[in-house]
């Protein structure tokens, strides 16, 4: 389940879970090429915690389309592959010792960063930090913010 420790999502078939389900079902009809993918609920949840359901759907669509999250959830996940490549390059440039250590132990970015990128860190961080990350994403862009947060975490 998504955000099991958050009150609005605790109750099975409760208001929060029902809103989340409606948004994800609506999105799967709106964009059948993406449909429903695991991880999408982690993108919608923080929106529902802060704005009404209808607005959450609209902002979610904008997040997927305008902020380039959609390509991370298409069949071949080309957006995710691109982000992982960019992240690996940045990691080698900014934190070379760590990058070489991870490489020498065959720990590839896809093994740890995919979940960060697909959920905008919502799976890993507390909600107040996720809300701040969303603020920065909407102000400055998703790709840039994802990279900055991931690199900062590993520095």
Automatic annotation (TrEMBL):
Pfam family, one: RabGAP-TBC
Gene Ontology molecular functions: GTPase activator activity; small GTPase binding
Ranges of residues in domain Rab-GAP TBC: 1-141
Matches recorded under PANTHER family: GTPASE ACTIVATING PROTEIN AND CENTROSOME-ASSOCIATED, ISOFORM B, RAB GTPASE-ACTIVATING PROTEIN 1-LIKE
Protein's name in the database: Rab-GAP TBC domain-containing protein
